[in-house]
Amino acid sequence: MADHSASSAASQGAASASQHQRILLQKQLTEVRMENTILRQQLYQVSTLLDIAVSKLGTMGVSLETPIDIRALRTEALQRAHAETAQAQYNAIGASPESGKSPAQHHSKKFQMRQQLREHTRAVQCCAFSDSEDLLIATGGMDCRLIVQNYLSGAKLWDATAHEEAVSDVAWMNYNCLLSASYDNTVKLWDVNGGTTNKDVLYQYTTHGFVLSAIPLGPSLFACADSRHKTAIVDVRVGGKGMVQEHDYRINSLSYDEAAQQLLMGQSNGVVSIWDMRRPDQVLSTANSSIGGILPGSSSPPPPPLPPQQHQHQRCGSINDMNGAVEGDAAPMTTLEDGAAGGSNIPGSNSGLMASGSANSVGGPPRFTRATEIENEPSRSPISFIAHFHSDDDTCRLLCVSGDNMVRLYRGNFSAFTGGGRKDGIGLYVLRNVLAGVPTRGNVMRCGFWKGERDKTEMSVFFDDGEMDGVSRPPRRLTECDLLVTGGPDNTAQVCDVTDDGGAVVLERLEGHRDRVTGATVRRSRKPIIATMSADSTVRIWMPVKS
Predict the structure, then answer these.
(1) Over the stretch 24-40, which tens digit does the pLDDT of each residue have?
(2) Which of the residues 117, 249, 253, 455 could staple to 266 if both were Cys, CB 3.0 to 4.6 A apart?
(3) Which residues contact 194 (CB under 8 A, 6 or more apart)?
């Protein structure tokens, strides 16, 4: 009996030792795979730098022989990365790449198309969900039209031939007011609350070139960028004064971080420049201006000029000087211009919003001051689209689409700040995810992001640290995933699950469009609601499949 007990105890001890050994080996394997991924990324970056250097020397007439084919090396690194990503997808769904079946055939669909919007007659280039409870989406395209519809029922609520050329961008200023930009060198504001009978433009600002991007900065303030290397910040309350900044490179896309009050610009030289918007000693609104109005849906008229000590609490209409040394220079060619032109009176206001105002500045000539910039990888491919996302848990994401057919997702760097402000020499954003093979094809590919909500996992208290590393965690639900939605190959859109450790797995490809997908956006709601736009003149609405 004693011998049996001793043998049983010995076998249990051997099993426990074997279990701990297996966990230790699994942990070492994970560390080696992570190091391998990092080395592959560094190899790709080094090969890119070498390729750029060799190309530049070649243009100067200097021939440099390299012991290896640099471009073949970079291509092989990308192919290996794609192969590992595909293998990870098959492993996640329990399939084998040798079976010849696609991942979609091994798992049920996560999204289903709920509505197809067919009002446009040419390619749709931009769309924007409304944050109101009315389930509205605004779309613009190559047919010069601006359309507002209910994205669930498909009912058309507002339709206008808004511009003389293609609509390049659209955004909601508030629940009733739309901001549209076009290649006809104009940015316009529209009141869509009056239905299809009200198609009068509320406000129009004329730029120097094709308008590439336009975004709201507040209830009565917006920014726009044109093809002539100029950006403008316009306050519609004071008759259309535009504070215009000239840049060395073309600004292809704009985005705004409302929490940090920073304006982000995606440039054609592959750099994202960040500008602070809290300058305490300047505002665009003038004290002696008797011209102006309020936008429909705004809660209050424009406030009077604030005392100097209160300027720091005023967000709309101010530019920050940083009051100290910053990275980069402030471009000297900043002017205050009047770009307003004709319009209609606003219901509830005493004067027309479209009247022209004087170009007098307040407190000296205004200027932009750059806070910092992000180099989007050493290849410096032109940036075609950027978007900033601020989540409820106070985390930030910066989405960047560039001409090298890649989408990069940056995360806000919490270590860049201390209690007294920003640390010197530390970037505001850290690169987290890289998604290759996005077919930009020389066009603007708009992408969307949705932040999932993850519950706290309950782990047994009997596990130590080493054992927890070896325990397989259950797969995340769709609402727990951080989703990145982009255009994909073969007229599809792809939904990817991006993780903080750098992973990017394609969850599903959304099929059905008859031409290339020009972009996608995701509504900020409890569940991801996706809109995909296409050159087939349609917009498709996708919602999660009910489980």
Answers:
(1) 787 678 777 777 777 77
(2) 253
(3) none
Residue with tokens 């290397």: 229
Q: Which of 148, 316, 131, 144 is nearest to 216 (CA)?
A: 316
H/E stretch holding 469 reads helix 465-470
Quote the mean pLDDT of the chain.
74
CA–CA distance, 3 with 8 (Å, rounded to integer): 9
Q: What are phi and psi of 461, to 5 degrees?
A: -75, -10
CA distance 185 to 163: 9
Instruction: Give the pLDDT band (50/70/90) at residue 286.
Output: very low
Please report, to the nearest 10 degrees, the dihedral formed by the alpha carbons of residues 66, 67, 70, 73 taken in order: 180
Cα torsion for 157, 160, 165, 167, to the nearest 10°? -20
Residue 472 in 3-state DSSP? coil
**At 530, which helix (H) or strand (E)?**
strand 529-534
Do the beta carbons of residue 224 and residue 231 sit within 8 Å? yes
CA-to-CA separations, 490 to 209, 338, 515, in angstroms, rounded: 33, 46, 8
